Automatic annotation (TrEMBL), chain A:
Protein name: Formyl-methanofuran dehydrogenase domain 3 protein
Protein species of origin: Fulvimarina pelagi HTCC2506
Entries under PANTHER family matching the protein: TUNGSTEN FORMYLMETHANOFURAN DEHYDROGENASE, SUBUNIT C (FWDC), TUNGSTEN-CONTAINING FORMYLMETHANOFURAN DEHYDROGENASE 2 SUBUNIT C
Gene3D superfamilies: Glutamate synthase, alpha subunit, C-terminal domain
Superkingdom of source: Bacteria
Annotated CDD domains: GXGXG (cd00504)
Signal peptide (from-to): none
Gene Ontology terms, MF aspect: oxidoreductase activity
InterPro entries hit by this protein: Glu_synth_asu_C_sf, Glu_synth_lsu_3
TrEMBL record, chain B:
PANTHER family reported in the protein's UniProt record: AMIDOPHOSPHORIBOSYLTRANSFERASE
Name of the protein in question: Amidophosphoribosyltransferase
Occurrences of domain Glutamine amidotransferase type-2 (ranges): 2-299
Gene3D superfamilies recorded: Glutamine Phosphoribosylpyrophosphate, subunit 1, domain 1
A single MF term (Gene Ontology): glycosyltransferase activity
Keywords of the record: Glutamine amidotransferase, Glycosyltransferase, Transferase
Domain of life: Bacteria
Amino acid sequence: MPTFDLATSELRDLNSALHSIPAGANDLEYEILNPRGSHAVAVGCSHPLNISVMGPVGYYCGGMNSEATISVKGSAGPGVAENMMSGMVVIEGDASQYAGATGRGGMLVIRGNAASRCGISMKGIDIVVEGNIGHMSAFMGQSGNLVVLGDAGEALGDSLYEAKIFVRGTVKSLGADCIEKEMRPEHHELLASLLQKAGVTGVETSEFKRYGSARTLYNFDIDNADAY
Amino acid sequence: MCGIVGLFLKDRSLEKELGCFLSDMLVTMTDRGPDSAGIAIYGQEKAGFTKVTIQSDTPDITFGDFERRLGDLLGKSSALRLKDSHAVADVPSDRVADVRAMIDNLQGAVRVMSVGETMEIYKEVGLPKDVVSRFGIPAMSGTHGIGHTRMATESAVTTLGAHPFSTGADQCLVHNGSLSNHNNLRRELKQLGMRFETQNDSEVAAAYLTARIREGMDLGEALTSALDDLDGFFTFVVGTKTGFGVLRDPIACKPAVMAETDQYVAFGSEFRALVGLPNIDNARVWEPEPSSVYFWDRETNAAQTLAA
């Protein structure tokens, strides 16, 4: 198992190594020591690696990830897993603002809280937050699922397209065009599969409410001018 | 961008290392702004005296003359403590107004960085590593301090445009963000008698808090009222003689991380700034909430969070 100690080696060398996995390589477990809040740790991975980051990271950890499974044993700064394509990123602590922003696929799991703008402009990513999320989360979310076991902040799902939001706790306020929707059997099934994939146990899908788009802002309508 | 740091010590045994910790924290934040850097340190008090920290672009010529004038004014020789382009004068607290009038008469040859019983501010154009080494910050001890490295947006890159800004005795503020109603506020604050040295938006925020505190508010109340009156983006860290406060605007797009242990409360724009602090691995680390005032006070031993 290759180990990179960021106290003694350069971040650029780490990311270069993660980007140049030889065809047929079978040792795909990487351990990263002493990240000490470094930015851009393990960004742009495109192989099915299994990466353990042993401490807190700064901005953009796991950004643009495809296929890799990245686990951070600490907290993450802004923009974790930004524009993720596939794979899985797990943050054992809290995540700062715009976690999973613009993500197109894969799953982001945050065991602690996420700050503001979690899942902003999400485009297919699944995000599971075990704690709370901050304001303006899932703003303009186009597709994918945001699951929150705790509470959501102000203006949840503002200007939402077709992303689905499931919240177990309270919602401080819903954003423009975001409404509560019925939990039909297919939603219980979807939510159960997301929770299982995220390794969350001990909660029932019946404890959640579903939120989605009222679809009144899709096209410009002068009567909606106040909502823009 | 801009990078800000702050450290408020609870454990007196760390006081000797305050300057060292703050310097390391600020240097780590260099990437966030290379234009100018500054640090405010709350150090030892000398009963009956107030520290006036001054700056000159021509210290070799100016400070000798200043020392002589100060001696004439106070009726006894008073040595300045010289530190590169800055100098600290220990002035009897009842003569501070006279000294300020004397400095005004020098018409810009000497600028006042700070006035306070314990606070000294050192700030210059340049990188944090150069600024902290020019002023010997790592060797300074104290109870609490804040620092800033600037990426300029709202006003010129000058010494006076560097943070921290001080608009009242022992009060200072560092700011990451930009205010949009600072011109109006500056006019209103001038009518209340506040004095401004720059066209900078952050100086207005500092003066705003000073004006509210002068009206009788404590730091927590002043920060709470700032949420109603300041328009724009901000993460502030502020210091008073005994207190330390943090405030983020409702949008909260400017980053902030805090850490607390039995020994200290620390603030950084990024977690990277905090990694060198003692026992950081076991600290409670969190992101301060938007529109919430956090402040700590040494005298009342209070830590408070006010959700607005």
